[in-house]
Give the backbone structure.
Amino acid sequence: MASKLTNKKETRPTAVVAVTKLSAKDKAWWKDGVQFECQGSGKCCVSHDQYGFVYLTESDRVNMAKLLKLKLTDFEVQYCEVTDGFYHLKEIKDPKCMFLKDKRCTVYEARPTQCRTWPFWPEVMNAKTWKKEVAAFCPGIGKGRVWSAVEIQTILDEQAMSENES
Ligand code: SF4
């Protein structure tokens, strides 16, 4: 699961650049892998601090529309907004995602890429941000199995690619 990506300043980080800019130092702390298992807290589905929108690639929108049995255009009108050329879920007054009910994602099978790739996002995979922002609020950090560096890199690349789509 995941909500948030990018910041409320409405500018989207170019994650592909972020990936290539990850220094050896940034990667060093996860070279032996990272322990993580989703605890179902739903915390990552609530906007917090600088993290805001749930962005949607075209594939994400197609998959969600299909799950909700809607035409793509109807899904986009009902659930999406476009900011700076990028589609994202509409933000309502409640900071939690509109698809989060009782701490569960009601579109889990078709959840967006950024939700599937959490917490392995290019912009948080440096030791400082991980400890200060990710480990501080996500109860899944340090739990469950170890994700290898190869697995993490694969997820980082998928997330980076998605951040360049709209
Ligand atoms: S789509 Fe699902 S996983 Fe993604 S933020 Fe919303 S409730 Fe969470």
Summary: The chain has one domain: 15-162. Strands lie at 34-36, 80-83, 86-89, 100-101, 104-105, 141-147.
